[in-house]
Structure formats: structure tokens, C-alpha cells
Write a structure and sequence with these properties.
heterotetramer; A: alpha/beta; four-stranded antiparallel β-sheet; 15 helices; B: 522 residues; alpha/beta; three-stranded antiparallel β-sheet; binds pyridoxal-5'-phosphate
């Protein structure tokens, strides 16, 4: 087997030094009844690269890649162009095949990019500090709620109706254990509805903007209301590129920001791996989950970086840790950091403007279709349409025609009759005029 | 080899004052790297995006007012920055990486290539299901490998790493207990357990009850059985355990646990020692996460991402979280909501958005198909063989608390051989860096003093192991002989000398801040 | 900055005896690397190929008898070997690479990606022509860029590098002369010419006649015109020339050459100084090769591969070698034989099998489309600006023979500023290595003493240039001030100290030989 | 433009230091009449990655990739599986973006792999020394002839009829200038025909084996005849993998071996870049063209490598150099060396056997087709068939059906009536049973 360097002779010589007469002897402690033969596994034997690559390429070809057709899905994951330099750099052996930087003297590469990543996240969100990533936006949101419960010593979390339903379910699953999770109605989903739910048992309010329908929400009034009652505001962002055009949560009074960083550097990946961005205020630092890279100096006085404040973490604190997370999204942080470094201030703002312009133009054209209404007055690169029929059937119909029209709201909220006809459409810099023409044409046909 | 005592620095902290300073600060191929924020200039960008006209009309009056504060660099500068950063890192590709419990095995390049196939990498989790059948097929193929190798009927694919898998497992157990109308709030965790075990139990709302270890590095089965009771929800055992030993009384413990109405959660981080040879299902395991980034070699990537699918026993299968992948005879379907769940499934909830780490799934599947069941079995045997070879080759000069062996895939040493030498476990490990090696795992597990846990994996040749053994033997002998110069203030030949972690924690600097601009936020 | 004189080695050759030896021989991240032949073991392989049954019946009785003698390694060992080797190299990606005449500019990654598209990379040169129209389209698009930028009507695409292009150009000229029924056997080559120029002329069967340079680094136009005669086939000028200067009398020389019935071959290695701004066709050039691996940034790859298409004037176009790409209105066709040649083409022959460096064509085309004509023009201007910036910033401390400037894309210095310091051009260059820089081109061109030719290219930021300037200024001032320690026996901080090239040439060891086996072959 | 780091301000500051008031001033020496404006170029402006990649992907999609259909072309370029590790490693910045190793202290990576490459080439060919590559097999052959002319001081080169016609034309183009090149008849192409042409003016005989038709030739008698007349034997190999199964030229008396290394690591690349392998005997070393890496030691006594014997080369010797070559095939040597290192003895021999077995089985099946004859009694992985009609038309017909059947001999020898019906078919480890079935089926139909 090409990956295994030991030969028969090597194995014999090694057993000899060990003083065992067979490998079986090394498994002495395993109950005999529990040792099985190769034959019990209904699985194939070793295969060469050529065969494996052939089989898997054939399998992959059974999926329609987003880049291969007019594509408008968003709702928590966005198709963006990732510069070729990103994938080249993250595949450098020294980044790809290194472990968590527990030995800082030979891991400055990883530690410095994590420090740069933390800085970028803090800048984007307008917060004071950010960690070295969590799994993804949904788990980051859940960690945020747990953190708020710890800080306020209150049980209740209020989730806005516009919070991505998968995020809401993720929060309910973990934060519901020792606390209470309340979801505000999806529609109408006004700020008042959320504010009305805040009471003195409320640990936090979780608001997503742009929300799952693409609507841009003003966080300030909710933040003020929450703060007035001693609760924290957790702002959720699923499309990080939106912060190139919209006021950052930090400037709107958020105490914790949980975001999905997939849009930068990472790609669609059918849902994972993604990268959870997590930022907060300095005063909450010691309640923060996840790893932190910090600046220090070495014995020679040179600036360097280390993992720090690990007294918050499971490997030191065990059951008292601020989170159980260990492995996080390391390499995705790198991809994120490289992509954002390539964009820079100018490129990032341009990218945001290009996305909004593309989506606005498309929204106008689609809203012109008879029977189709735009239900999100404000949005970034994603908006929601009300169709004259169930959106799921329309999406299937267009898929047949080789167009991926977007996400039917019913895919996320199957029980909410009010959303049955809603279609969530995202448009980014990757959508061409031809893509948009195709969608407009096909949708007109489908609803005619 | 004799020591060059001019190599001894004046103080363990000081630099080798004999080094010649350079004008640039760089030293040959070693470049010092500024922070990206200290580079660049306004208006510059490494990505050409056409400028467009747009109005603020649809921004709800919330257009960003302040600049973000990102630096502007061209592509060549960005590439140079990150290439230079990479050159400050150690990696498996460049050398032996014996981190115990972390399983730093070879990461085949084919896996990277396959993971980038558009049909796996460029698909959206909410695309119409009929357009992602290829991706579903890959996930289902991986599920078959995992359930077959573990001898368990079901697997939950969404957990994003080992710790997340632990949480998934405990929540499944909690759901099963509640379904039985019971309340059990205690989880038994051995003192040798990895930190994520107790941490996860706490997150899942359980009380952690520690089970001691025996003299010989095993879980104290008697103590464990004594602790069993109606309030015990489960035990969380790592097997092979974190001392690198297989728990000989595992089945007995499993039976006792089941008899007490509790469940057996197994931390599968060390599955790589037994994969293809032992099926956890046959040991009575009810739930076990598998770190695809360990046993099945998806790259560690400097800390992640990973994937932690959880295999489940018959008893627990029904409570697996959403989403659930099913095949309805002619095509795959992902069940994303409870009421769509078929044949009695009662999902306890959702671990995360979407359906798991596809990018890791495709890599792990490629790894498994390449090895085959025979290759996976051989890999486990070679990993165990190599660890025992190291144990046998070092135990006379280093102290191995459980040295009579055999061990499984990792060899545990403690610091008693360094007693009186003035050399600490940390010094010893840092001196390995100068020798071109990444140190082993230190100070874990907590059950032995000054632990050094060495996991060679199956990826090292005998020549490589022999060289490693020679270096460690020589170091150990030097330390005992009082030749401690190479340990004092090591490393000396790395990009950095020892870093001051205390200072870092005392006054945390966690981000770059613009000199001129005020603190961000409100 | 003052020198640490403990840094001064006892003898320029000796190692810094203060360095601490390691047991392994490795030093931190720097691993020493055995030869691949010193690794591995029989029977091992890094590629799994199923064994097959086969008979010798069809081998004509010539089945191999002896083993080849290759070592057997697993994939992880091979990857580690080459990753470690790579870590001993300097690269553009890691630092400024100011090699004059070599044009070490940024190599965009997009070019690598495009070059790997199956439609370009996985096509066979003899596939049915209707199945490779996409590849033909790319070549034809590149031809349009090259002819448009140079203002020449035709281009021969098959030459595989600059020198091969030179040969192609001279053979085209030879064919044109023969077609005129003449015999001309002399080629005029300036003394400043790159070695490939006279070498190529010789290969093409011409006599090389050297033209002197003037005081100010230009070709002596008068001397050149004096040498013109009925036996002169062509002149081979480099413009901008190898001193980094544009030949002001270029047109006058071209006219004289044409008047004498000869042709003007231009070495286009320095086209990157004027691309997008000046068209060689307007200067009277008849033939010019373009190093795609210089001007259009296909990676140098440690010495190759490159590509050297040759643009041709109206006078020469008809004699371009096979194959010829044509478009017959509805599809592309590659003409591979003389008698298929259309509209008066009289190809002189064939430069190589198949039709050139497609892998370089796709990269160069990507580069051009990315830059656009405006970007290419800007790149030329930035390259020239950066070279002049370096010249202006260093000429007061280093000696610039043609320092009054302006120069084109490279700045030339000589060693007169080192006179009496005991520091040679070589010492100076090697000391740059310790500072983290690749040295400039040394001892070329031959027309100045101890030449140092610095080409920064357009890819460096001002910060990077300023840092480079600071280091060189400091070095120059130290040398003059007699602070020569850093020059003696430099480099000290590189993977190797100075290597003994004399010994290497005196008793050449050009391959590894098995200790036991006898010499290969007869 | 994303690749250009200088800003307007930078340029102004730099001009200021230079003391020039504009960039134009720096082009002072350029005749004004020769300076053109942007507008004279009928070429597009800067484009972003997304646009460029889209346009070129579309273009590339107009070619049928060898890997996408049953594919049997050889005749000098062969489709083999290249392990994924190869392409990953050659893209390492330190290999990809470095120059010729003129500064050995910081180029040991390149120098050592060249030394390993030279050793591998010497071992494969059975020769004493090999250089660090030439452009490709055809130019290596031409260089071999020039070298033989230098060594023997004789003008004539005799080319066997089985030498790849492109190679023969390349040799004629350069070696014909100052010498004489004679081509032996293509058919019947017996050794005797070649031997008959050797005289005392003969510098060398050039024989390819396996030849362009796939036929394996016995070089020994030709070598003996050549040596008897004081001429050299130049052996040409276009499929280097054949040396895993066939006696190396060095063992058959070759004085110079010129070969194409494309089969290992490099890929098809539509004809280039490829890698020219060049090996000879020690005694001819100083007449050898191309770069040579040699072993030496550094000032600290450590083993190291340098470029050596450059007194043969153009940059030192100028018009007296052994060749004008400068840039060679560097990175292709690396790909070759990595691929061969991965294969090792065992893998390389297996690969050769797999190729021969695949080709033999296919040849049998094709020869069974009525009217189709196998005209190459011996071969490695490539053989020639005589069809009942012109092979070019058959190839076009099968191409229509999505099968690339091979190379019609007439594509290489349009004037040779005797080869009009000959089809050169190559089969490698990359051909599946399905590929072969498809070819057998389609060819049967085409000749029926
Ligand atoms: C024994 C053990 N359990 C659990 C974990 C946690 O796994 P992860 O880092 O994937 O969350 C680890 C990883 O270090 C481990 O070694
Ligand atoms: C001025 C000049 N001419 C010609 C050449 C030869 O080009 P190549 O190396 O591509 O054969 C070079 C390359 O170094 C050069 O600098």
C-alpha cells in the first residue's frame, strides 16, 4: 500500500526488538472475541490512485456544480469568486499538514495568521476582540447564547424570527438544555415583536441582519431595549460580505457578534467546512469560547505569537471550560484571511457594492414579472420574492431547465403556511448578465 | 558526540550572542514577517473588481459610515506574506510529528484533489436535492465505511469535530433516557480523559463524576462499577485510552453500564489503533465519535477543520439528530425536518446548519477507498507496531510508567528519568525542536507526571523511527550525564526562541490596533 | 548598525565555530536531505499498480535483463524528500529576486490554474484536429497579442526558449537569403550580447563578428556600420541592451543593415521594458524572439521550461518553420507539411516535434488577458521606473558606469566602488544572501568590470525597494569603511556555505553510483 | 491592476528621487516616432480573474481532453497517470518560482533534484552520464547528431526509417546546415538498410526503438557496424516507460541516448513543455550539450551540489559552446524525478508490464477484426495496424463517435503511399476495458 512505508522485513525486525513474535501479541489486551478477520468487513481492498480517482470523479459528476449553471442559492451560504492564490497558499504543506500551534517556536506561521484573522474579524464586525474561529455561524450563534447565559446568569434567549431556522434549531438544541429559548414570530417579524419579549429573565436577544430573507435590520433599537433590561444583543451575520456596505453590528450596539465567514475564501463545500466568526467586547473576553492567539516576545526580545488565555479552555479547565471546542476551523481562517488580504479595503468595498448592484438590478427585473412581488424593501445581495404559486414547485421546475433559482422558504420553514410562496434569491459578483436573463425568462414562464 | 560548550548561552533566556546580526533582520532563507496591517497602502487591491453604480435606496438607511480599516496590498505582496509565514511552520510533510493523541499521519494529495471536484466542492447545501445526488452518494458511501468498520448500525454525520461529536453522542443519550421517561444527570469520566470529555458533559447539562485510574494506566473498573447508579446517564471512555493502552476490562465495564441502565459513550479519537481489526460495536459501545482528521487523515490544517461523525448502537440510532440521509429506492433524500423522519426516527434536534463537513467526507472516503479494508487494518497494525518499537527502544533510557508494554498506537513516558538533571519535560521537548523534530504531546494525560506521549503513526519508515530513536536516546543520556547545554533555553535554531506565554496572558494583545485610530466599536 | 566582530570567522572558509552542533544534523526547520538513492528499500513503491500477467513473446527477444537500480519509497517518504528539498531554495514568492536580464517577476497563480484546464493540458499534439479547436484558439489568440504588441505581421510559435527562438530567427534569415540566391555567412554580434547570441549564430553555421561597445554602454553604431558588407547576413542586437540601456541609434543601425541587404535580428529578452509602449516592428526589426518566461511571466521553474516565439517582419514571414496555424474560415488547422503550406509560405524546416510549448502559451495568454494592453504598458513603465529608482538611490555609494541614467528595466553597477576594500563582487553578492536577498546578476554583461546587474521588475512595492536599497547602501558603506566581516566567507546563514565549484569541475561527480554495483552500461 | 504594487503616489515619489518629471523622461532614448499610444493596440484592457478564467475555460472546453474519452494516440507523446503528489510538489513556490540555480547556497533544492534526475536518466538508459535536460526528445536528438559530428569530425548522419518523422525533420533542419543527413527508407526499414548506408564519412547512425510504429529494434548489430566504421550510435527513445521492460540502449552499444521524458510526470500538454533526456559515455562528457549538476562540498565540509563544467556552455564559451541552450526543462525534470521516485524499481517495472499487457491484449483483439493486420511483430505499448482503407478517414470517422483511435501514419508521412493505410495505436495503463471494447467495436464497424 503506497502510504505505508514498512516492509515485511521491517516489521519482522521491529517485532524482534520489541520481543513479540507477532503483531497479534501486541493486541494482547483486546478480548479475543472482539478481534475480527478482514473477511467480516464487506468492504473493498486497496486501490490505486487511478481507480479511486475515476470512481469518485464519476460520483461527483452526478452533482450539478454551482459554477456550471445559472445559480441563485443563498440562505446562509453564498457563491463567491475565490482568487486562485487562496487555494494555492492554503495547500502549502506548512499550513495544510501542521497541527494546532502548541509549539509556538515552530508555528509562528499559523499563530500570526490567526492573529491577523482575529484582527480582521474585529474590524469587520466593529467589535473589540474576536477569537480564532468556531465551527461555523450556527454553532457560533449557539456558543454566543451560552456565553450570554453565563454572563447574565439568566436563562432566556430570544431569537428573532429572521434568524436562519437552522441557526435557531442549533441554538435550541444546546441552549435549550439548561435555559429557555423563545423564537419570535417569523412574520411580520418587526423589531417591536422582539422587544416585547424581553424581560428580566432575558439573557440575550439574537438578531440576524441581513436576516434569512435578506432584509437589513436596524439593530440599535433592539440593542437599546435589551441593554435597558440588562440583556445582551447577539448579532448574527450569515453573509460577511454585507459588512462592506452595511453598518457593522459593533456600531449598532451588539455585545456579541456570531457570523459565518464562508463567503471569503472558503467556498460552498455543500455545507462544510465553514468558519464561525465570533467577536465581542473586551470586558467579556474571559467568558469567550474558542482559541485566542496573542502577541508576546521571545527570549531574544523578538515579537512573536502564542495561543493564550487557555485557562478558559477544555484542556485546562475541563468541565469548567467556556466551551468544549478543541479543533476549530484553522485552515478556513487562513483562506478567509488570505482572501480578505487580497481584497483589502478597496477590493472588499467594491465587492460589496458589486454584489448589491447585481442583486438590486435582478430584484427589479424579477419584481416586474406579473404576479411576482419583492417582499424585502431593503437587502444586500439576497432578497425574497412572493410568487403566485408555491416556490418549491417553481424551483423544481426551473432546476429541470438547468437553473437553480434560489431557496424556497418552505425548505427552511415547512410548517409556516405564510412562507409557502416565498423564494429567497441571492445574486453575487459571480452571476453574469446571461445568468440573470435566464432566470428572469424562466421564472416569467413558470409563473405565467 | 561531545558538546561544544561555547554553545552554552550565558542565561537560558538570552540569545546566542555569537550570532551575527544582519542589516535586514532576515537571516538567509528565514524572513521575519510584518503583520499584514503594517504593509500595503490605501487604494491598492489584489483583486480587480469592476466599479459599479449603485444607490443607497435599498440599504434601509444603514450604509456603513466608517472605513473597515483593511490594508491594501497587491497580489504579489499577499503571496509573499503568506509564503514567508508558511516558512515559519513545522509540518508532517517536512518531518516526524509525534504528537500523542493527535495522530499526525500522512495526508495523501489525492484526497485534496478529490475534495476539489466541483461536484463535491462547488455545491450548495440547499440546492434542489435532485441536483446533488453525487454528493449524497459520497456521504452515503462514507457512512457505509464507518458503520461497517465500527460494527454499528447508524451514524450521525453532522458533527464538525470530535468535541462536537461527543456533544452529539451525549445529546442522543439524553434523548434516549428522556424517551424512557427517566432522568439521569451524572456522567462518569475517567481522570485520564481528554479535556473535551468533561467539558462536553458539562455543556450537555450533566454532572461530571471522575473515575480514577489504576496503577497500570487503566480505568479503575471496580471504582467505575461502584459509581454506577440510577442517576448515571453514561460513561465516557476513551479506548484505546489516553495512556495508549487498550482497556482489558472494557466489555465487563460495558455490561455493567448497560445493566445499570446507562449508556457507553466511547471517545473514538484513538480508533486508528484498532480500525479494521476490532469493531467498537462488539465491545458494547453505544456511541462513538470518529475524528476523520485523525484516523482517516483529513489534514489538521493548523487546528482544523475536522469532522466528528458519531456511530450509534441500535439503542440510540432512533435519536440521531437532523439531517438524516435516506435512499428511497431510486434516489437519495436528505430529511431536514422531524416530521419528515421515517421509520420511527425521533431526532433530538440539530447540531449545526446544513449537513456536516462535506469537504472532510470526500477526503476521508478517498482515504478509505485507497487503503481498502485490508490497508486500514494494516495501517492500524503498523501504527501499533511503530509505537511499541519506540517504547521498546527508549524505555531503558527514558522512563515509561507502563513500560512492560505492549502499548497500542502511542507510547507514554514520564519525567522521572529527568529527575535531578535540572532538565524539565518542557526543556527536553524544546530541545527536540533544534534537532528538527516536533515535540511529542507533553503534560497529557494528567495521570502521569510530566507526561510525554509519543504517537509515531503508521506513516514513518523504520529508518525514520531509528533516527528519531537515536536522537532521543542521545538526548536522554546527555541529560542524565549532566550535559544539559542543549536543553537550556532551547530551542535556539528555530524561527523563535522560547516565547513568553505568561506575559501574553497577563496583558493580552489579541489584535493589531491602528496607532492613530481609536478603539473600534461604539 | 555596528558589526558584532565575534561574527568574524577565523578563516573565510571555516564554519562559525560558535554554532551548536546537533545530534541529528538537522537544525530547527532546516533539514539536511539524503539523496533519494540513499533512501528506501526493495519492493516498496509509492504507486499502487495492479500486477498483470504478460508474456515476453512480443518483446523481440530484448527483454530487460538487469534491474534499473531505482530505490523503493512510499508516498509519504517521497513527499517529505521533495518538500525538504524545496525548503533549501530561494524563490520569488519568498523574496526580491533582482537577477538582471532574467526578469524574475510575479508569477500569478491564475496562470497555473488555467494551464491545467484539461482542454489545454490533457490534449495530444496528434489528436484529430477537429478535436483540439480550443487549444488552437488559445494559440491563435496568443499570436494576435504577440504580433499586435510587436507590430510585426507574423510569429513562429514552436521555439522552446529564447535561444531556440534565436536559432529559429537566424534560420529564417538564412532561408530568406538563400531564396534571394545569395550567400552571406557573417553575423555581427555586440560584445555586450548574451552568450546565447554568438552560440546560436555558430550553431546556425554563421561566423560571429563582434561589434564593440561605446564608452556609454551602447553598441558602437559606427563600428557596426563599418562592418556591414555583402557577406553580412544579419546583426543580432539586444534592445534594450544588456547594460539596461535603449539603443538610441537603433533605427539608424536598422536602416544601414537593411541598406546592406542584411537583416536585423533583435534579442527580445528585454522586451519587458518597452512592451505596450514601443513596437519593435517600428524600429526596423526583422525577427525577434520573446521569452514568454520573462516578459510574460511563465514561471522559471528552476531553469525551465520556457518558450521563445519569434515575431517576423514582412521580409521574413514566408520562411517561418513548420508547423503553421491557419484558420480556414470555419475552423483552425495546423499545417504540418511544406506542401500543405498556403499563400506562398516556404517554411525552412522544423524546430522540434509537434507545435511548441502549449503549457507556456496558456499561461502567457492568461497573463496578457489579465493585464490588458494598458496593464502591460503600465508594467513596462513600472519596471523601468523601479530600475531607475534603484539606480538613483545607489549610484552615490555603488559605482554605476552609466549612472547618469536613465536606464531601462535594469540598473548596471560595476565593482570600482569595491576597489581596495578586499571585497569582491562575489563577496558582496554572497553577503546579500545572509540578508535574505537573492543576489543580482554578476559578471554580466562582460563589457563592464565586476558587473552587478539589478532588475527589480514591476512586481516590487516601494517599501520593498526601499528596504532593499537600505540594505545595499549599508553594505556598500560598510565595505568602504573596512567593516568587511559580513563579506568574508559569506553566506553564513544559508543552508550551505560557499560551495567549491573548482573541485566540482576538476573531478566531476555527476550522478550517484551504487556502492556495490559496478558502473552501469557495457 | 492587481499584480502591480506601485500606486500613483509611489510613482510620483520615485520620480522625484530620480529627478525626472515623468516616466516619459525615462524613455528619453527611444525615438519619439517609435513611441505609440495605448490606442494603437487593438487589444482589450485589464480584466479580473473571474472574467479571464471564464473566457479561457470556455475556450478550453472546445477541445476534447484525452481523459474524457477512449484515447489511443501515441507516436511520440503518451497518456499516463501522473500521481497527484507530483503536481502538488512541483507547484511549491520554492520550485516553481526560482531561477536557474546560479547561487547554489540557496538553490540546493533545485541542484539536488537535478543531480537525482541525471542519475535516474543514466540508470534508465544504461549510460554513464546524463545532463540536466534539453527541451525535448526531438531537439535532444538533433543535439546528439551535432555532438557526434563534433566528436567524429565527420559530416554525415544516417537516420533510420523508424525515427519519428518530426525528429528526422528537426535533425535535418539543424544538422543539415554544416553536415549531411541521410534518411533510410521507412519501409521495409530493416537493420541491413541502415547498415548499408554507413561509410567512413558517417558521424553517427540514429535509431529509434521502439520506433515510430512501435516496433522494438535490436540496436546491437547496428552499433557494431557503426563502431566498426568509427561512427557513433545514437539511440532514440520516445516512450521512456518502455525501458522498464526492454534492454536499455546502453546495454546495446549506444554511444548517445536522446529520449523524450514526457511519459513520466509531465503529461500531454498538447506537445510541450516536454523534457529531453540526454545521456552518453563518460569519455564524451566534455562534448555534451546542456547543464550539468555536480557534487561538491561547501566551506564547512558539507556535501552540496553546483552547476558544473559550464566551460562547455554558451554563457562562458559563447560561439565555441557545445550548444546554444540556456533555459531547459527544469520543472519538467522535477516532475519526472518525483514520478519516478514514487514508482521506484517495483512500480516502474509494474507500470511497464501493465502497459505491455494492455497493448498486447488490445492488439490481439484488433488484429482479429477482418481486414485488419498487425504489422509490428514486436512492440511495447504501441503497435501499428494495416487497415483495409486509409487510416486517416477511419480516425476521423471514429472521432465523430467520440473515440480517438490513434495516429494515422499519413499524418506524419503524407508522401509515403505505403503507409496510407497504417494506423499507429498506443494503449497504456490509463485505458480501461471499456475504452478497448469501444475501440474494437467502432473499428470493426468502420472497416466492415
Ligand atoms: C482523546 C481525544 N478526545 C477528543 C478530542 C477532541 O477532538 P476534536 O479536536 O476533533 O474536537 C481529541 C483531540 O485532540 C482527543 O485527542
Ligand atoms: C539577453 C538574453 N538573451 C537570450 C537569453 C536566452 O533565453 P533562454 O534562456 O530562454 O534560452 C537570455 C536568458 O537568460 C537573455 O537574458
Amino acid at each position: 500500500m503506497r502510504y505505508l512505508p514498512l516492509t515485511k522485513d521491517d516489521r519482522a525486525a521491529m517485532l524482534n526488538r520489541i520481543g513479540a513474535d507477532s503483531v497479534d501479541a501486541l493486541f494482547r489486551d483486546v478480548p479475543h472475541s472482539a478481534v475480527v478477520q478482514r473477511s467480516v468487513f464487506d468492504l473493498p481492498d486497496t486501490q490505486g490512485e487511478l481507480a479511486v480517482e475515476r470512481a469518485l470523479s464519476k460520483m461527483a459528476a452526478k452533482s450539478k456544480a454551482a459554477g456550471s449553471l445559472p445559480f441563485f442559492c443563498g440562505a446562509g451560504a453564498y457563491k463567491h469568486h475565490v482568487p486562485s492564490a487562496v487555494d494555492h497558499l492554503i495547500q502549502r504543506s506548512e499550513f495544510l499538514t501542521s497541527y494546532t500551534p502548541y509549539q509556538p517556536e515552530i508555528a509562528q506561521g499559523t499563530l500570526q495568521y490567526l492573529f491577523e484573522f482575529q484582527t480582521q474579524v474585529a474590524l469587520l464586525t466593529g467589535m473589540e476582540v474576536a477569537n480564532a474561529s468556531l465551527y461555523d455561524g450556527s454553532t457560533a450563534t449557539a456558543e454566543g447564547v451560552l456565553m450570554a447565559q453565563r454572563i447574565t446568569k439568566r436563562p432566556k434567549a430570544i431569537l428573532s424570527g429572521g434568524l436562519h431556522p437552522h441557526y435557531a434549531e442549533t441554538v435550541e438544541t444546546v441552549a435549550g438544555l439548561s435555559g429557555v429559548v423563545k423564537r419570535a414570530p417569523v412574520t411580520p417579524g418587526k423589531a417591536e415583536d422582539i422587544i416585547a419579549l424581553i424581560d428580566d429573565q432575558t439573557a440575550c436577544v439574537v438578531v440576524q441582519s441581513p436576516d434569512v430573507f435578506g432584509l437589513i435590520r436596524n439593530l440599535k433599537p433592539i440593542a437599546d431595549a435589551a441593554h435597558a433590561k440588562g440583556a445582551l444583543l447577539i448579532a448574527v451575520v450569515t453573509e460577511i460580505v454585507s459588512l462592506g456596505l452595511i453598518e457593522p453590528p459593533g456600531a449598532q450596539g451588539a455585545d456579541i457578534v456570531a457570523a459565518e465567514g464562508q463567503s471569503l475564501g472558503v467556498g460552498l463545500n455543500f455545507g462544510g467546512p465553514y468558519v464561525g466568526l465570533f467577536a465581542t467586547r473586551e470586558k467579556f473576553l474571559r467568558n469567550m469560547p474558542g482559541r485566542l492567539a496573542g502577541e508576546t516576545t521571545d527570549a531574544a526580545g523578538k515579537r512573536g505569537y502564542v495561543l493564550t488565555l487557555s485557562t478558559r479552555e477544555q484542556h485546562i479547565r475541563r468541565e469548567k471550560a467556556t466551551s468544549n471546542i478543541c479543533t476549530n476551523s484553522g485552515l478556513c481562517c487562513l483562506a478567509f484571511t488570505i482572501h480578505l488580504s487580497l481584497l483589502g479595503e478597496e477590493g472588499f468595498l467594491r465587492l460589496a457594492r458589486a454584489n448589491h448592484a447585481r442583486a438590486s438590478a435582478l430584484a427589479d427585473r424579477l419584481a416586474d414579472i406579473k404576479g411576482v412581488d419583492l417582499v424585502t424593501p431593503s437587502f444586500f445581495n439576497e432578497f425574497t420574492l412572493k410568487l403566485p404559486k408555491t416556490s418549491a414547485s417553481v424551483v423544481d421546475e426551473l432546476a429541470e431547465k438547468g437553473i437553480v433559482a434560489g431557496v424556497p422558504a418552505s425548505r427552511l420553514l415547512p410548517h409556516d403556511k405564510d412562507v409557502r410562496d416565498l423564494l429567497i434569491v441571492a445574486a453575487t459578483e459571480t452571476n453574469t448578465d446571461e445568468d440573470c436573463d435566464a432566470l428572469v425568462h424562466a421564472l416569467s414562464g413558470a409563473v405565467a | 558526540m561531545t558538546m561544544n560548550n561555547q554553545g552554552r548561552p550565558t542565561s537560558s533566556g538570552s540569545v546566542n550572542e555569537n550570532e551575527m546580526p544582519t542589516i535586514s533582520g532576515d537571516r538567509g532563507l528565514q524572513h521575519d514577517v510584518s503583520l499584514i496591517f503594517e504593509l500595503g497602502r490605501p487604494g491598492m487591491t489584489g483583486v480587480d473588481i469592476p466599479e459599479v453604480q449603485m444607490s443607497d435606496a435599498r440599504l434601509g438607511g444603514l450604509r456603513r459610515k466608517a472605513p473597515v480599516g483593511l490594508p491594501g496590498l497587491s497580489e504579489p505582496e499577499v503571496i509573499r506574506h503568506f509564503v514567508r509565514l508558511s516558512q515559519l511552520n513545522y509540518s508532517i510533510d517536512a518531518g516526524l510529528y509525534p504528537l500523542g493523541s493527535c495522530t499526525m499521519k500522512h495526508n495523501p494529495r489525492l484526497n485534496e484533489k478529490v475534495a476539489r471536484l466541483p461536484g463535491f466542492a462547488d455545491v450548495h447545501p440547499l440546492q434542489p436535492q435532485q441536483t446533488v445526488q453525487g454528493a449524497y452518494e459520497a456521504i452515503s458511501a462514507l457512512m457505509k465505511w464507518l458503520t461497517t468498520l465500527t460494527g454499528m448500525p447508524a451514524v450521525a454525520m453532522s458533527p464538525k469535530a470530535g468535541a462536537h461529536g461527543e456533544l452529539c453522542g451525549l445529546l442522543t443519550i439524553r434523548a434516549a433516557i428522556e424517551a424512557r421517561g427517566e432522568k439521569r444527570n451524572r456522567i462518569l469520566v475517567p481522570s485520564s480523559a481528554h479535556g473535551t470529555n468533561p467539558a462536553t458533559a458539562a455543556v450537555a447539562g450533566f454532572i461530571v463524576d471522575e473515575v480514577p485510574a489504576t496503577e497500570d494506566g487503566h480505568v479503575d473498573a471496580d471504582a467505575l462499577e461502584a459509581k454506577l447508579g440510577p442517576d448515571v446517564a453514561a460513561i465516557m471512555l476513551t479506548n484505546p485510552n489516553t495512556c495508549g493502552l487498550f482497556e482489558p476490562r472494557i466489555k465487563e465495564m460495558a455490561d455493567a453500564v448497560h445493566a445499570a441502565g446507562a449508556y457507553f459513550y466511547c471517545d473514538g479519537a484513538n480508533f486508528n489503533a484498532i480500525a479494521g481489526r476490532v469493531r467498537p460495536g462488539d465491545l458494547g459501545v453505544d456511541a462513538m465519535h470518529i475524528n476523520l482528521h485523525k484516523t482517516f487523515s483529513t489534514p489538521h490544517g493548523g487546528g482544523g477543520p475536522g469532522a466528528g461523525p458519531v456511530v450509534l448502537s441500535e439503542r440510540l440510532a432512533a435519536y440521531a439528530p437532523l439531517p438524516l440521509l435516506v435512499h428511497d429506492g431510486n434516489e437519495f433524500r436528505m430529511i431536514e425536518h422531524t416530521d419528515e423522519a421515517t421509520d420511527g426516527a425521533k431526532p433530538f434536534g440539530r447540531m449545526c446548519a446544513f449537513h456536516g463537513q462535506m469537504g472532510m467526507f470526500s477526503r476521508a472516503l478517498t482515504y478509505m477507498m485507497s487503503h481498502g479494508a485490508d490497508g486500514i487494518r494494516q495501517a492500524s497494525e503498523d501504527a501499533v507496531l511503530s509505537a511499541n518499537y519506540i517504547l521498546a527502544s527508549l524505555k531503558d533510557v527514558m522512563s515509561a510508567p507502563f513500560g512492560e508494554g505492549p502499548c497500542m498506537h502511542e507510547a507514554l513516558f514520564d519525567d522521572s528519568f529527568l529527575e535531578g538533571t535540572g532538565v524539565t519535560t518542557l526543556d527536553f521537548a524544546k530541545a527536540m525542536i533544534d534537532e528538527g523534530y516536533h515535540p511529542m504531546t507533553m503534560y497529557f494525560p494528567l495521570v502521569v507526571h510530566g507526561a510525554m506521549l509519543i504517537e509515531p503513526t503508521e506513516s514513518e519508515s523504520k529508518e525514520s523511527l531509528d533516527r528519531f530513536i537515536h536522537v532521543l536516546r542521545t538526548m536522554a543520556l546527555e541529560a542524565k550525564a549532566g550535559q544539559t547545554a542543549r536543553f537550556e533555553g532551547a530551542p535556539r535554531l528555530a524561527p523563535r526562541r522560547r516565547l513568553d506565554e505568561t506575559a501574553a496572558a497577563r496583558k493580552p494583545i489579541l489584535r493589531w490596533k491602528p496607532k492613530d485610530l481609536p478603539q473600534a466599536a461604539e
